[in-house]
Automatic annotation (TrEMBL):
Gene3D superfamilies: Hypothetical protein af1432 (1.10.3210.10). Pfam families: HD. Residues 53-105 form the HD domain. One of its GO terms (molecular function) is dGTPase activity. PANTHER family: DEOXYNUCLEOSIDE TRIPHOSPHATE TRIPHOSPHOHYDROLASE, METAL-DEPENDENT PHOSPHOHYDROLASE. This is HD domain-containing metal-dependent phosphohydrolase family protein.
């Protein structure tokens, strides 16, 4: 399976690719109004940057062996201790910014951290209330369809020699935002089914395999 860094870079790249599609969609719908186009694109790019940073950094808080460390090892070693890799990711983001004196807009930094926490139990109340579609891109707490899964399912399937029929590019090209929620065409239901079916196979044959879990016990 790939490294966490490979995963995060791929997620960031996927999000940046959306910028080109957003640009074309907006250009086709502002009817030649250059000023309006520039305003919309400035806003879209800021939001895409925030989502891209979130995709790049949302898993930096994982411990060794990823979820096994969080769900199997820590509960056995530290009885009753609650630990969240999303919380640790936010702490590391703050540490990186402070330690290296990175100049970043406060609102941008807050958006990035809110996106990291959006699908966790520790999401900010404002994020929970607003539930803007932007908070569903990296880690979707509403339906579980997000670019994080797109990346690791395809990558891990290939790395383990399992083969993968799931084509995330099709979903990314046809998804639309309706009523502040990311939606997919009804005729793409088989692609969505393959996403969750492949994920279930990976959990059964790889992630929770007795030999894999045994190394952590």
């Amino acid at each position: 399976m790939g490294t966490s860094w490979n995963e995060e870079v791929t997620i960031c790249y996927s999000l940046c690719c959306q910028d080109r599609r957003s640009s074309k969609h907006i250009r086709d719908n502002v009817h030649g109004n250059i000023y309006l186009y520039k305003v919309f694109m400035s806003l879209i790019r800021l939001l895409i940057y925030a989502a891209s940073f979130s995709g790049l950094l949302h898993d930096v808080g994982h411990g060794p062996f990823s979820h096994l460390f969080e769900r199997e090892f820590l509960p056995q070693m530290l009885n009753g201790y609650e630990w969240s890799h999303e919380d640790m990711s936010v702490k590391k983001i703050d540490y990186i910014v402070d330690e290296h004196n990175i100049e970043i807009d406060a609102a941008m930094l807050k958006n990035v951290k809110d996106m990291v926490l959006a699908s966790s139990a520790n999401a900010s109340q404002n994020t929970v209330n607003e539930k803007c579609f932007l908070y569903d891109i990296v880690a979707n707490g509403r339906n579980g369809i997000d670019v994080d899964k797109f990346d690791y399912i395809v990558r891990d399937s290939r790395a383990c020699g399992l083969g993968c029929n799931f084509q995330f590019q099709r979903l990314m090209e046809t998804m639309r935002v309706m009523d502040d929620e990311i939606c997919y065409r009804a005729k793409d239901y088989l692609t969505v089914h393959k996403l969750f079916a492949t994920r279930a196979d990976l959990h059964r044959t790889v992630y929770t395999h007795a030999k894999v879990k045994g190394r952590c016990n």
